[in-house]
Structures are given as structure tokens and as C-alpha cells.
Amino acid sequence: MSPVPADTDHADTLRVSVLSEALPYIQRFAGRRVVVKYGGAAMVQENLRDAVYRDLVLLASVGVKPVVVHGGGPEINDWLGRLNIEPEFRNGLRVTTPETMDVVEMVLVGRVNKQIVNGLNRLGARAVGLCGSDGSLVRARTYGDGTNGLVGDVAAVDPSVLFPLLDAGYIPVISSVAADGQGQAHNINADTVAGELAASLQAEKLILLTDTPGILQNRDDPSTLIRSVTLSEARNLIASGVVAGGMTPKTECCIRALAQGVSAAHIVDGRTPHALLLEVFTDAGIGTMVVGRSHL
User: Fold this and answer.
1) Cα Rg for the chain, rounded, in angstroms?
2) Hey, how many other C-beta atoms are within 10 angstroms of the C-beta on 203?
3) Measuring CA to CA, which residue among 243, 236, 132, 147 is closest to residue 189?
4) What is the largest CA-CA distance in the chain?
5) Is the distance from CB of 36 to CB of 56 less than 8 angstroms?
6) Which domains does the chain have, with CATH numbers?
7) What is the average pLDDT across 74-87?
8) What pLDDT is attached to residue 20?
9) Neighbours of 97 (CB within 10 A)
10) Which of 18-22, 73-77, 97-101, 127-131 comes out lowest in average pLDDT?
11) In this structure, what DSSP letter does residue 290 have?
12) The pTM is what?
């Protein structure tokens, strides 16, 4: 073996070292399905967006099978404003009138989805854009008593359309719009869709990219990050009010996914560049991991 030149850049040496240390994780997750819910600042800030795209392409390049489920709330609000439609929220959910639903479907399915697909393909991936209606992937039902309009919940998932895509090396990119049994489109929370898809695919991991460090013991103090919780502990955190507000549906999503067979679920800070790689390919990981039982 040739000696390393004295002028070898330290950054190059560090990169090679990091790749070598990642080998056990690459071997462990090769061929495994990982569902990523993509949203928040990581969709808005260009540097974070590019880092997520690179992470996903790298995962696919080393044999991991990522499935992306995305939101798009800020862009929906932007387009509603352009059309002079006032956004309205009730109990944390967007009130979705038929007029608003038209905008949601246009933005999520026709615009945001294709931006993600194009971003991944530009880096050499083979990404395919879908929504819940395609191939009857997700069937919707009206959420609750219908007071929020065309807000949906997941009635059923049939992932069969995804298997040939994943086996052929494609990255499915899925928007959280799906139709009910009568063909009426509904707007479903992307966290919910990601969790149910992860369960139906028996994914190795469900990763939710958020705008918080993870589950915090004190929601105003990032230093109180809870690194790992079991299913029962996660339920207790919700019951005790430690988990509240927008973190509640994310934690409940993780609980449901694990209860249906997903190996581990992670709530990670998408504001951290390359958060996906830090979670999948390092010992320490990032954010909060929810597991079925104590892994200690």
C-alpha cells in the first residue's frame, strides 16, 4: 500500500475515517426500509433542504430503501394568501373547505412533491412522486366529526404499489393527500401518513424531521432532551402533560407505528444539517428515539 502523502488534506482524512466508522451501520441497514417524514425548516431553508436531499440519496446509494412522506404547510399558506383565502385552524388542524382543499392538493401534489422529486433526481437518485390516492396507497376517512371539513385520517394503507419501486431502487416521495371511498380528496396530517406507512411496510425506522430537538422534559429548555423512551414511557409523558401541543401527534404517531411492528421511531431536529445521517449512521444518534421496550 502506498504511503499517505504528507500534504493529504486533513478534511479528506476525516471524511475517509467517518465513512469507515459508518460501515457497520451501512451493513446493518442495507436492504431495510426507512420512512422519513420531511417537513418544517428543512423544507424551507435552502442549506437544510440540500442536506436532506444529499442524505436521502446517500442512504439509497448504500442500499437503504428510503420512503419520503412530506408536508408543506408554509407553501399552502403562501398560496392561500395569493388567492385571498384566509387560513383557519381549529384545535391545531387546518380547517379545509372544498376551496382550501383545491389549493392543498395543487400545492402538495403538483408543486411541493415535484420540487422534492426534482431535487433528488438532480443529485443522481431515481425518485418517483406519488400521493396517497395513487395505486390506492392510502384510503382516507373524514377526521373526527367533520367540523374541520376535508381533514382526513388514515382508514387503510395498501403499500403494494411501493414494493416494485423500492426493489428497483427508486425513492418514493409521497404527499399526504388521499381520497375516501367516494373519491373525495382529503388533507391528512403527514406525520400520521408516515407512521401508518412505516407500519404497513414493516420499516426498520420511522424518522420524523421536526423543528425541535426532540421530546423535552422542559419544553423551553433544549438541554432537557430525552434521548430514549419506551412505548409505555412515551404514553406516560403524554398523560402527564410533558408532551403537549404539536409534539403530541408526533409522539402518538411513533407509538402507533411501534405498536404495529416498526423497530424504532425517532423525532429529530431537522434544523441540524445532515440529521438523517447522524441518526442512521452514528452510535449517539440525534433527537429522541422511541422503542418498544428498553434496549439497555
Assistant:
1) 19
2) 26
3) 132
4) 71
5) yes
6) 32-291 (3.40.1160.10)
7) 92
8) 79
9) 14
10) 18-22
11) E
12) 0.90
What lies within 8 Å, CB to CB, of 293 at 6+ separation is 230, 231
Distance CA 100, CA 177 (A): 13
Task: Specify the amino acid at residue 250.
Answer: K
- What is the sign, positive or negative, of the torsion defined by CA atoms of 55, 58, 59, 60? positive
Residue 150 C-alpha cell reads as 376535508
pLDDT at 294: 53
Place 73 in a pLDDT band, splitting at 50, 70 and 90. Answer: confident
Per the document, the length of the chain is: 296
Going through 197-253 in order, the beta strands assigned E by DSSP cover: 205-210, 228-230
DSSP code of 219? Answer: T
Average pLDDT over residues 108-120: 96
Q: Is 90 helix (H, G, I), strand (E, B) or coil?
A: strand
Amino acid at 92: G
**Backbone dihedral angles phi then psi of residue 118, each to the nearest 5 degrees:** -65, -40
Mean pLDDT for all residues in the chain: 90
How many C-beta atoms surround the C-beta of residue 28 within 10 A?
A: 13
